[in-house]
User: Which sequence fits this backbone?
């Protein structure tokens, strides 16, 4: 692959990962009701604490979205892959069909692909 195509691939992945984390971050900051309910269900937190937790998660996700555009770092990309996997896996854990997990494979695969893209650079 030539250098121009590598840069295009890099930016497609960076924009995709940033978009995923920005979108989820905004939903979390806005207090998406299902996510607060799932947080309560999985942790036993009360609604107020689950809402605060979701706010913090949302802020972190938004910061990660910005970071991946400004200066992506391999350890952060691994965290994003883990977090994307976990948040996708939450769906069947809380009772949604397994297809809700499968549909979200890109949530963890895109940051993982970007991690390996950087890992393979010389």
Assistant:
């Amino acid at each position: 692959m030539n250098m121009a195509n590598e840069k295009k691939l890099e930016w497609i992945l960076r924009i995709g990962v940033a978009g995923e984390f920005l979108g989820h971050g905004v939903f979390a900051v806005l207090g998406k009701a299902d996510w607060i309910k799932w947080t309560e269900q999985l942790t036993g937190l009360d609604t107020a604490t689950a809402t605060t937790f979701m706010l913090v998660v949302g802020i972190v996700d938004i910061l990660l979205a910005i970071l991946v555009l400004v200066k992506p770092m391999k350890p952060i990309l691994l965290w994003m892959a883990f977090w994307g996997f976990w948040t996708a896996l939450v769906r069947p854990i809380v009772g949604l069909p397994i297809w809700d997990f499968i549909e979200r494979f890109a949530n963890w695969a895109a940051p993982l692909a970007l991690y390996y893209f950087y890992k393979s650079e010389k």
Residues 3-29 form the longest helix (27 residues). Helices lie at 3-29, 33-43, 47-70, 74-93, 98-102, 105-119. The mean pLDDT is 96. Residues 12-119 form one domain.
